[in-house]
Specification:
Largest sheet: 5 strands, parallel
Order of helices and strands: EHEHEHEHEH
Number of strands: 5
Distance between the termini: 41 Å
């Protein structure tokens, strides 16, 4: 799990909650710090705050998408609206949650995001296999 939020209290609360659920958690105070440390590959889920100084959560999702990174993502915000939610989904977020985040809502959203990413990866592999087979 990757938690990106400029509010240290939120980061630590999310870390505690996720670790109590048995998950490995990395926290970052900014999108830039996350990008500096992140190495694509493997399974994970990004929980990212929408509004942060510097690169906001939406910009981070757009950057990951343009780089071709397939990472399950959930946008979290204290001040969201419908247009922001739509943009987050277009940028690759599997869900859009408003703060304060409820435990059951968060865990359900994480499972949904991970399932969605797994399904997308399987579909991508199937398309590649079909594309290669059509060349033969």
């Amino acid at each position: 799990m990757f938690v990106v939020d400029d509010d240290s209290a939120v980061r630590e609360a999310m870390r505690d909650l996720l670790e109590q659920d048995g998950r490995t958690v990395e926290t970052y105070a900014s999108s830039e710090a996350f990008l500096d440390a992140y190495r694509p590959g493997g399974e994970g889920c990004l929980l990212v705050d929408a509004r942060m100084p510097g690169m906001g959560g939406l910009e981070l999702l757009q950057r990951l998408k343009s780089d071709g990174t397939r990472l399950a993502a959930i946008m979290i915000t204290g001040q969201g609206d419908v247009p922001m939610a739509v943009e987050a989904m277009r940028a690759g977020a599997a869900d859009f949650i408003e703060k304060p985040v409820r435990r059951d809502e968060l865990f359900a959203s994480i499972e949904h995001a991970l399932d969605h990413t797994r399904d997308s990866a399987k579909l991508s592999v199937r398309r590649e296999v079909a594309r290669r087979a059509s060349r033969v």
